[in-house]
Specification:
Structural class of chain C: mainly alpha
Oligomer: heterotrimer
Distance between the termini of chain A: 61 Å
Strand order of the largest sheet of chain C: 1-2
Shape of chain C: globular
Largest sheet of chain C: 2 strands, parallel
Number of helices of chain A: 8
Largest sheet of chain A: none
Shape of chain A: globular
Strand content of chain C: under 5%
Chains: A mainly alpha, B mainly alpha, C mainly alpha
Largest interface: A-B, 48 and 54 residues
Helix content of chain A: over 70%
Structural class of chain A: mainly alpha
Number of domains of chain A: 1
Number of helices of chain C: 11
Number of domains of chain C: 1
Radius of gyration of chain A: 18 Å
């Protein structure tokens, strides 16, 4: 058994489990905590890749994931939720059980798709890519089936986590550090922007169903 | 890489840095226009230098067209924005503080778009496009009204999802190139990928293209990925609508075309043409139908943008030198005309104090100059001769008739539908009894007039050098 | 092939062993819970006394009960005992090990549950109906998860017979395998649900509306109740020894290893059993019971984990080919 593969498979599998855990939660604070856990696992996975592939600048990506997404952003969102009085139940479009079953279908789809498409690539890359695509699709599912603006941000950030996992698995991809910095900036900017724009201030809830007063098709 | 190329990136970002610290509206507006003009000159400079490529940047026949168009519209939109935003400050729709960042963000956005257009590295292309999108999202929410925030949020969510999928496609493209070109920078260089396209892994390439199509296609506004576009256009300030329609859609289309060229160069990979044709037609006909029900003037023209981008995508999907030429020409004409229309619409909305079409009537009586401008613009975008859009639409339709005759009725049908809707609305707005509010607007006619004159000239006579230039680009597009 | 005397003896010992240990394990869990809640709790051997008392008491049967009501306890006890006896505890390769297929065990437990639910509804009380319907709902969600776990392990080991799986995993080198971790968690959730433990059901509750398993046996008394109690204790032991056999099979002897290896195997098995019972007690004290409609989500987590485990092991197989 190749231990480099084992550990990265383990960490990638844990991230996938964390994605499902994100779908399972029905309270916002639990969602934030689960996301922080997923970010920390991502940091470990990237650090492992940095060590195994001997590319020390990936440690910066790992550090960013750990610090920014594991602590700063969840804490900022936490403060924001209390400050703006956003109510803490997550409204759902479809029930939890059904959502998770869809999630299973998406995981199966992404595994079969990626494995078929990457027959020539090295094994660590195939694995990382398959699970990365699964995490991305699960993040998309979360964005679609949850009606709360904060969970939509979290869903998007978990998509990012999947992307970074995929990018580090692709051996030697340059700019990964720069791109992960770009992503982190994007998200930090948006967490800040939501805070500043005070979505809560304009609406009584951050439920995006209430945001749909301006439906383009009716205008 | 000649230093003139770097100017295209350095000038906007330097200007952005300066604009952040300067106070006062008039000074920053003037600086904004000046910086945009300098960027435009740097763009024109590209015509003089040798095409070439290094690992990060590339200058070739295709992107010179896009860059010059971009910088030109960036300049005229900056000019328009100067007078428009002045009015908005007076009426209190925008606070002075937000305006300060507005100009800095405008320049940063132009810089980011130039980065995307100039980049040879597919990752850098992605970064530039993402940065530009991010900045436009913030600018769409400038007015801070509930509708603006909702539009900005929707744009953010859909745009970010599109961007993530495009990034995944980029990773896949890198993996496709990695087997042949090795690790690191070479496998991300577009020129090297294109040169070795025949040896790239076919399955990976196909999957990559699908993701890139969905990701970048969202930013082009192809149906069914277009949902962000009408809201972003209607709720943001008008200069941003002009920038979105005239610039950002083009840059996203450029990214899509780069990858189309890549996959087309591999004979075993899937053919990108049919997919682009289908998506283009769907956008075209869908938008044409939607035009009839729009009650907000900016939303109306937003759907018109979707329609025209659909037509352009259709033309590029057809492929071949003539269709590509027509597509490039239409893209240029559309950028110029649509931004001109938004210039006019912006002032119309200010004059009438509303964006609702039902409340805008009798413009020819109350604001005759604006009425003429808007009327000319609508005639141009609807595809009437002697404006340039008629020329490019005609070319597209004739090529389609020649190559795939059974396909041709579809775009023709869409175009006729759109024509009807636009003329119907224009008639309601320009003619009839004057009603509703009426404010004076001090507008500079230069940007609008400049664009329309260009479009008019292009409709009558295309200079030979321009034709040659477009033909070379069309050839390269494959 | 005639079974050898040792394997016959070993199988007999295993059957007696699980029967004797079962009440003790239940008692151990109970006393751990009590001590953690700072009570003295009943003595460790109390379940034996309870069973003894119940056997000697008269069994009162309602007038509306049918023959099923009288027959069910014996059937339930028989099925549970056979299932518990088939799981390898201290040695593999015993006389009936050729039938020790996990699917057989699931089928035996399913039959026991079938009779249990029918008996619960037999007398016609409302609480019996509640208990039976909840029990069947839980089973509907838990059984697929368990089958998937079995499938995962069987795919890895090449056979669904328990001794074969145990032998396969004993021979593996120590390695981190996330699919096994997920399968373990899934099986633990299923075990908690099937044995009516917190967070799915509270075994010590006296409020009928919160009961699942207890509600089905409200009408039983005397020797019938003794059989049913013994059956549920056997079920607990069976699940624990199943988990131990599949995931922690170290120390298991084979049938021909000799008496000393058997003693060692038994000691290790008793140790694992007690440890698990203690952990179960600690777990039950630390967590709250879920509301009934959340139970289905909880069990779907088990299903998801089991499915994920299979997909991940499939991924590993494909990628390392």
């Amino acid at each position: 058994m190749n231990s480099a593969y084992d550990v990265s498979h383990f960490l990638a599998g844990l991230m996938l489990v964390a994605s499902f855990a994100l779908l399972y939660q029905d309270r916002i604070l639990a969602v934030l905590r689960t996301f922080a856990v997923q970010a920390i696992i991502l940091a470990l996975a990237v650090a492992w890749e940095a060590w195994v592939q001997d590319r020390p600048h990936l440690f910066i990506t790992a550090g960013l994931a750990f610090g920014l997404k594991g602590f700063v952003i969840p804490m900022a969102l936490h403060r924001m939720i209390f400050r703006l009085g956003i109510h803490r139940e997550v409204e759902q479009v479809v029930g939890v059980g059904l959502t998770m079953l869809f999630g299973l279908g998406l995981v199966a789809l992404s595994l079969s798709l990626t494995l078929k498409a990457t027959t020539g690539a090295p094994s660590l890359a195939r694995e990382g890519l398959a699970i990365a695509l699964a995490i991305i699709l699960l993040g998309l599912l979360m964005m679609i089936t949850r009606r709360n603006a904060v969970t939509q941000i979290i869903g998007f950030m978990s998509i990012e986590n999947g992307l970074i996992l995929g990018a580090t698995g692709a051996r030697g991809m340059p700019l990964v550090v720069e791109i992960s910095v770009a992503f982190s900036v994007l998200i930090a900017l948006f967490v800040f922007a939501v805070f500043v724009f005070r979505i809560r201030e304009r609406f009584d809830t951050v439920d995006v169903a209430a945001l749909e007063s301006v439906r383009g098709d009716r205008q | 890489m000649s230093p003139g190329v770097y100017a295209l990136i350095a000038i906007p970002f330097a200007a952005a840095a300066i604009l952040v610290v300067l106070p006062g509206y008039r000074l920053t507006a003037a600086l904004n226009v000046l910086a945009s003009f300098l960027t435009f000159l740097a763009g024109l400079n590209l015509l003089r230098i040798e095409p070439g490529a290094d690992p990060y940047l590339i200058v070739d026949d295709v992107n010179i067209v896009f860059i010059i168009l971009n910088t030109l519209v960036g300049f005229t939109a900056a000019w328009f924005s100067a007078s428009y935003i002045g009015h908005e400050i007076e009426t209190g729709r925008v606070t002075a503080l937000s305006v300060r960042f507005y100009h800095a963000m405008y320049q940063a956005m132009i810089g980011a778009m130039n980065v995307a257009l100039l980049s040879n590295n597919i990752g850098l292309l992605w970064v530039g496009l993402e940065l530009a999108t991010l900045i436009t999202v913030v600018m769409v929410g400038l007015y801070r009204t509930p509708e603006a925030i909702e539009a900005a949020w929707k744009y953010f969510i859909l745009g970010s999802v599109g961007i993530s999928l495009a990034f995944f496609g980029t990773i896949l493209a890198y993996l496709a190139g990695q087997a042949t070109l090795g690790d690191g920078l070479p496998a991300m260089s577009w020129t090297l990928l294109h040169a070795n396209a025949g040896k790239l892994d076919v399955a990976l390439l196909n999957l990559a293209f699908v993701f890139l199509l969905v990701g970048y296609g969202t930013k082009v506004g192809l149906a069914p990925l277009h949902a962000w576009l009408p809201d972003a256009h209607s709720e943001g300030p008008t200069p941003i609508s002009a920038v979105l329609s005239g610039l950002l859609l083009n840059v996203a289309l450029y990214a899509l075309l780069r990858f189309k060229m890549l996959i087309a160069a591999n004979p075993l990979a899937m053919r990108p043409g049919p997919i682009l044709i289908v998506m283009g037609l769907v956008s075209l006909i869908f938008a044409a139908f939607m035009l009839y029900q729009r009650r907000d003037i900016k939303r109306l023209f937003a759907y018109s943008s979707i329609e025209h981008m659909g037509l352009i995508t259709f033309a590029f999907g057809m492929g071949g030198p003539l269709a590509n030429f027509a597509g490039l020409l239409h893209m240029t004409m559309h950028s110029l005309t649509k931004s001109a229309i938004f210039f006019a619409v912006g002032h119309v909305a200010q004059a009438k104090g509303t964006q609702r079409i039902a409340d805008i009537n009798g413009l020819s009586i109350t604001h005759p100059a604006l009425a003429i401008g808007l009327g000319a613009g609508v005639l141009a975008i609807a595809g009437l001769p002697p404006f340039g859009i008629f020329m490019s639409e005609f070319l597209i339709l004739t090529t389609t008739f020649a190559r795939e005759p059974w396909l041709a009725p579809l775009p023709a049908f869409g175009l006729v539908l759109a024509f009807g809707a636009l003329l119907l609305r224009m008639q309601g707005m320009l003619f009839g009894a004057a009603g509703g509010a009426s404010h004076t607007v001090k507008a500079s006619p230069f940007p609008f007039a400049f664009h329309l004159v260009l479009v008019l000239i292009a409709g009558l006579y295309l200079p030979g050098s321009l034709v040659n230039w477009f033909e070379r680009a069309a050839e390269f597009l494959g | 092939m005639l079974p050898s005397l040792t394997s016959f003896l070993g199988q007999g010992m295993q059957m007696v062993l699980v029967l004797v240990l079962a009440p003790g394990i239940a008692g151990l869990t109970r006393i751990v819970k009590a001590r953690l809640m700072r009570r003295r709790g009943p003595p460790l051997l109390q379940p034996y006394h309870d069973l003894h008392k119940l056997i000697r008491k008269e069994a009162i049967i309602a007038e509306s009960a049918s023959w099923l009501f009288r027959v069910a306890p014996y059937l339930i006890f028989a099925f549970s005992w056979v299932a518990a006896a088939l799981v390898p505890t201290f040695a593999t390769g015993l006389m009936f090990s050729w039938t020790g297929d996990v699917i057989v065990i699931i089928a035996l437990l399913g039959s026991a549950r079938f009779f249990q639910t029918l008996a619960g509804m037999d007398v016609g009380t409302a609480f019996g109906g509640i208990g039976s319907s909840r029990e069947v709902m839980i089973a509907t969600l838990a059984e697929p998860a368990m089958l998937l776990v079995v499938l995962n392990l069987a795919l890895a080991a090449g056979s669904s017979r328990l001794p074969a799986i145990a032998d396969h995993f004993v021979a593996q080198p120590l390695a981190i395998r996330i699919s096994l971790a997920l399968a373990l968690m899934s099986l633990v959730i299923v075990a908690l649900a099937e044995n009516a433990r917190i967070p799915v059901d509270n075994p010590a509750t006296h409020l009928e509306l919160t009961m699942v398993h207890e509600a089905m046996v409200l009408e039983y008394s005397g020797r019938h109740l003794a059989m049913i109690e013994a059956a549920s204790q056997l079920k607990l032991v069976m699940y624990i020894s199943l988990i131990v056999c599949l995931f922690l099979p170290f120390g298991i002897a084979t049938v021909n290893d000799g008496f000393l290896a058997w003693i060692a195997g038994f000691a290790i098995f008793a140790g694992k059993l007690s440890l698990t019972a203690i952990l179960l007690g600690v777990w039950e004290v630390s967590i709250a019971k879920m509301r009934v409609f959340r139970v289905s989500e909880f069990l779907s987590v088990a299903f998801i984990f089991a499915f994920l485990a299979i997909m991940l092991s499939f991924l590993t197989q494909e990628v390392l080919r």
